[in-house]
Amino acid sequence: MIAVMSGDVRFGLVGYGFGGRWFHAPLLAAAPGVDFLGVVTTSPDRQAQVAAEHPGAATFASLQALVDAGAEAVAISTPADTHSPLTDQALELGLAVVCDKPFALDAPAALASVELAERVGLPLSPYQNRRWDSDFLTVQRLVADGTLGEVTSLESRFERLTPQDGPGAAGGGTLRDFGSHLVDQALVLLGPVATVSAHWSLRDSGLDDDVLVVLQHTAGGRSVLGGSWRQGAPGPRFRVTGTTGSYLVDGIDGQEDHLVAGRSPADLGDRWGVEPESAWGRVHRGGPDGEPVPPERGRWDTFYPAFAAAVRGTGPVPVPARDAVATATVLDAARRSATEGTVVSL
Question: Which residues span the domain enclosing 69?
């Protein structure tokens, strides 16, 4: 029987690359209910960054050293091919785990980690922070209140332009990287998938890019998902069409920009996640301009407090671990579709 503890959850972070440094450490440090112990990294440069940016945090040479320091939970933000081994190692050491995307390189590996967490009785959650993007929360509100009628299609994109050949192999390719968020949001909004069709091109590195995935959902809606690191004219972030209107929003949620600029919920307070009026989306009903829609506030700051509550047994994990298996299953089907040139049924 696991003893029930109280107080702030003692939390560590593995990895201090771009994701760990900007997407996890500031939110862990600012989260109510979390005692941010520090970072597992053996890089002298990153150890120095941790010391400068989080003076109260330590650095550790291994997960075992983190456990020896009293950690109860850990966030994993490392290269994609290390996610499953590190998740499983952390669970076996008795740590609750948050794992960044892609949660695993394929569905069998994702399922193995989920089943391990269930056997040892520890919370496990994929870091699907973009469920709390301002624009996606606004989409969910418009669907729930009937503004768009019955939703028939979701178009969703992460498109950027990067120099040279785009990011390296750490993300596992655009389908696994951007696709993890795109597919997760599509499943949340429109439910399980019946068929998957995908196309991509390959960068000089051999990794996939310019990814297009079409999902036919069992309930009847359709998702068209796009991801690219070499798109000079990004399309709308969302176009969600229903029987009585369409919601269109450009740009991308501003929480990432705040974090990279060194801001956090700790210093912005109630201004965290608030989108400027220039970034508001519009509901269109056939006219040229559409109706501006005040957006929901972005709430990445709620993820780690919710996970800490789950560790304490006072709430559910923010994203169920088996949702990561569902996402990985769709991504596996998309890889097969793009490789074989076929429509895959699930």
Answer: 9-129+303-319
